[in-house]
């Protein structure tokens, strides 16, 4: 490993994260156009757009597998799926408190959601004002059935493949199965979320930027893995823990800014639920490169505790969204409750790492 100061490696880590995020953003633009061309609702399209949103996680796992430090990728995969959901819900809630959201409307999506809402700007303004008074982060109800329940099914499949003692760990056959699981996840979202298609124009510039984004994403992912590898060595912690609490948390930072921007533009449901599509891609497509090189589970307790919280977060998301308010969404106390679950995770992890339970 290159001998540099841990602080310098931390800078390289942050730069790599934002580079990978920029690259993923360039890939997301043509994918979003494809969503409109295929005629997918914002929620259903999240399953497709997630392939670009999770681009940095995929790149990190490919690099981790290539460099023989798969524990970093495994830790990042689990840790990012735990921290991202409560973090994004909190950011979305705060962003949606703005009096007037932007010109991007969810009126069409709301209308597809069973006729509620209005496509007029005046109707949307009145509805948003009511949601602000009620301290409600409104989310379309189809998010639960189209995104969250299938994602929980994916997590159940991961548990079946990796927890039993006879096949414990990530193996090549598991990678093929999880790749097929993503195709099934994508297919059900397409089937259940179809609407009117739109005519879109493709330009050489955006396709060129997408190609450049792929190169920058790969470079950023390599920098992330290399810097994490050196940071954990300097701190004397395991690569799995480094992936959980160094790589995973830092990679969530760009997504925070993206969520803030999307929600402020008026796309509240898209900004709040895209994290589920992102996480589904992380646990399927990003699972594949690690499985292909075979990753044994060396600290089984640490693994199952984290996998449990990976499943707990979307389960809480679904429960609070569906049953916690008169309309689908999160009230301010529910957001705080959600955040409390993450602090519970931190406490459990501290006990687990210290072998106190």
From TrEMBL:
Please provide the record's keywords in A-Z order: Membrane, Transmembrane, Transmembrane helix
Segments forming domain Sodium/calcium exchanger membrane region: 10-186, 208-348
Top-level taxonomic group: Archaea
Residues that span the membrane, as ranges: 6-24, 36-60, 72-95, 143-163, 175-195, 207-225, 231-254, 275-297, 303-323, 335-354
One Pfam short name: Na_Ca_ex
Keyword Membrane among record annotations: yes
InterPro entries hit by this protein: NaCa_Exmemb, NCX_ion-bd_dom_sf
Tell me the compartments it is located in.
Membrane
Reply yes or no: does the keyword Transmembrane helix apply.
yes
Give the start-end ranges of region Disordered.
102-131
Which GO biological-process labels does this protein carry? transmembrane transport
Write down any Gene Ontology CC term.
Answer: membrane
Topological relation to the membrane, as annotated: Multi-pass membrane protein
Predominant location: membrane
Put simply, this protein is called Sodium/calcium exchanger membrane region domain-containing protein
What species does this protein belong to?
Answer: Haloarcula mannanilytica
